[in-house]
Write a structure and sequence with these properties.
This protein is mostly beta strands and 137 residues long. An 8-stranded mixed β-sheet has the order 2-3-4-1-5-8-7-6, with helices on one face. The two termini are 26 Å apart. It is built from 2 helices and 8 strands. Strand 7 and strand 8 (126-131) form a beta hairpin.
Length: 137
Amino acid sequence: MLTPQHIDHIVLNAQQSPQEMLNFYCQVLGCVVERQEPEFHLTQLRAGFSIIDLLTGPDSKNQVKEPNGNASRNVDHFCLTVNETIDDQLLTWFADHGVECSDIHDNYGAQGFGESVYIKDPLGNTIEIKTMKPAPL
């Protein structure tokens, strides 16, 4: 069983108009650029306790792909921060519920780095499940 705490971040595909998206979120909504990862075509914007990620380049390395290989819709994925540790017990729990998981990743989000896995909801939306605990060194 999971205990969601909050939405950690949301990832938007902004390839069609990256500067317009950046201007909108920063100038209109008051977000602040927190981090940029040029090799991933990623700009991370601080929005209070959360982060809005803008994927700004073609074929972004961390862009989630649909089963047919095409880029997903405008919302790439959202992330739920949970209290649980991402371990074999949690992966088994997902499997017992017919939910496939990605490999475990060490990803950066609104609360810093932590372990996460990616799953899909019944409609195919990608959800990142992320612990607030950092990955072991």
